[in-house]
Amino acid sequence: MANDGLVVGLDIGTTKVCAVIGERNENGNLEITGVGVSPSTGLRKGVVVNIEATLRSVSAAIEAAEMMSGREVHSCWTGIGGSHIDSLNSRGVVAVTGRNRETREIGPEDIDRVLEAARAVVIPMDRQVLEVIPQSFIVDDQKGIRMPLDMIGVRLEAEVHIITCSVTSAQNLIKCVNRAGFRANGLILQCLASGRSVLTEEEKELGVALVDLGGGTTDMLVYSQGSPYSTTTVPAGGAQVTSDISILKNLSFETAERIKLDAGCCWEPLLEGDDEIIVPGVGGRPPLPIPKSHILKIIQPRMEEIFNMVRDKLDQLSLSRPLGGGVVLTGGGAQLLGAAELASHIFNMPVRVGVPLSVGGLVEEYRSPEYATAVGLMLEGASREEVKMPDRTGESRSREKGQAPLFGRLADWLKKEFF
Description:
With 419 residues, the protein is an alpha+beta fold.
């Protein structure tokens, strides 16, 4: 590996860039040894609008993580998200050729072929396939099979979840990372990475909606029966909440953000008393006292709007059974006091705030919802390096030209994912 045993996750968001450095200990287990954060100004709603500003943020975040870990970073796994992300479910079917024509035993090449058949969907020229995630397999009408390798059958079907993104958005992200002096090993969907770091296998099996409250967008990934079922994005996030406070109280964006983090609440029963917070005056004016209840009346309607938009997307899905695992909130917006209570009221189901599961190393530094994506990118990158998955970023260009490579070593990956 180019990083000499390091695995680096880079979460480039609308309001901040997070970098997490993972290092293998003597037992071969990953431990987080460096965490870096930098303000992000070059993105709007998850899409790069200023390359120079973005690459400066990337450099600053990775340098901060390098300083903490004492190691030098050369490459990283980069997250991608935003309103340009789209998804669909597809199905492919092939006849089993098998290792033994008499017994019709399903081999890795049959799995490769059926997944290629499933991903053969028509997408516009300006979009590329980001992820093809197997949901389940069907062997001779026997449904719900997770891993058909070595089974005997005549007909093999695969149900997959396909995630697509804008070609230009993906290329601009990679360009920012490369120009900052690092190599992008591949692009990984941000909410898929978040799910990797905060969700339990039991929640995925029961069915769960992961809601990632970012700065510019709110991303939702729904798991059903252990596999991703739907990926969708709402074009609103924490930055809109800050903007509301800034406009209604005539404050700078930075001051409004600080007030939101220090004194913000979006669920009235949690508001203890009605203390006033002192806000510095603008342009030499005297400091201004603002009651916390005023801040709540600004924050709560906007958070309700975001959760209602997510609920509408959730209601449009034709799920085979209710989400027994409820809703898990993550991302920076999940740290807002009362977010889980308000979400539980709107979704009418159990809600918890998801923090990254302990990986080891600097636990206190990364056990926060805002690091969920970066930690997940590191974990997902490590697993892809272990099974030597093909570089999906590099594949995308050849796929656009119709030269879709087969899913080499996919059986290993499926075993790792499902067993």
